[in-house]
Amino acid sequence: MILVPLRRAAVVVTAALAALLALAAPAAAHGADAPDGTDYRAEVIALAPARPGLTVRVVEAGARLELVNRTARDVEVLGYSGEPYLRVGPGGVYENRRSPATYLNQTIAGDTNLSPEADPAATPVWRRVAKGQSVRWHDQRALWLESSPPAQVTADPGRPQRVRDWVVPLRDGDQAIEVRGTLDWVPPPDAYPWWVAATLGFLAVAAAGLAPAGTATGVRALRGVGALLALGGLATVAFTVGRELDAGADGLGGVLGLLNGQVWMLLTGLGAIAAGGYALARREAADFALALAGACLTIFAGFANIAVLSRSVAPVVWPATAARVLVVLILATGAGALGAGVLRLHAASRPARTPTPLPR
Fold this sequence. Notes:
Elements: H1 3-24, E1 40-48, E2 54-59, E3 64-69, E4 75-78, E5 84-89, E6 92-96, H2 100-104, E7 126-130, E8 134-137, H3 151-155, E9 161-172, E10 175-185, H4 192-206, H5 216-246, H6 251-255, H7 258-261, H8 263-280, H9 286-302, H10 320-349
Antiparallel strand pairs: 1-10, 2-3, 3-8, 4-5, 4-9, 5-6, 6-7, 9-10
Helix pairs in contact: 4-10, 5-8, 5-9, 5-10, 8-9, 9-10
């Protein structure tokens, strides 16, 4: 009897996953090289001299700088040889095709091959890349690109310390402006307690699947797992919004950009909320929905963000501890719902035993 609702649920889930893949595919490059966590904190400390309407900040856990120019004049970002690199103003955002930084800054590692036309001494060739008055870019001056920490960090990795001060030069007409910032080493946390918490949470939630399905205890267990899975879905949505805000989203309109940048994780969270509601309503195939949504939540929202458990700087706007709590909640509820759903499905698949009549 359970096969019919299972087949229906499988068809719905397959269609949903196909649509999810179609939506997520073009968004894969959005912030694709932004870190899931880092131990280096970059900060902008001053714009000298200050300009009303001109702001610069660090976004994406330090992966990019963002410049917003609300003045009536063009402002240029200068490249690594002092050449014009970006131009931002009322007419939009332009990049200089002759600047080596145009190619080097395409990835956070700066490993893009230079175009033959790249020449910092040549006359700029401007190409419009956006309509607005803001731009985000990787800047090697504000990053630590080496695979190993600097010498002073290696000597004493347990102490927060300054790696370097950095400056990114701007130009407003014929006047020079400096974006001044710092890059600090922040010692990583101990991930062990967080993994213990996630494991204990998983075991506690999964144990609910041992309750007999046809009893009042089993009904309460099903609803409890559904509620916890929905909570994990809410945590995923919150983490997704926090990550999009850290990537530079500004206000409600900016947060809606997560439909392009974080669609996979967002829909995973929403799917977990829906599956949790499905279980709370005690619908047919609720066990299958719990298992599937729990697996997706664990993989696409939990394991996809496990770096925050062992990194000091998380890619969200909140403190890193809050990010770790959210990821532990996602892992515990997702894996727990998967375990509980599988246990309940296994129990339902076993044929009912007919009592053996006692001999007369």
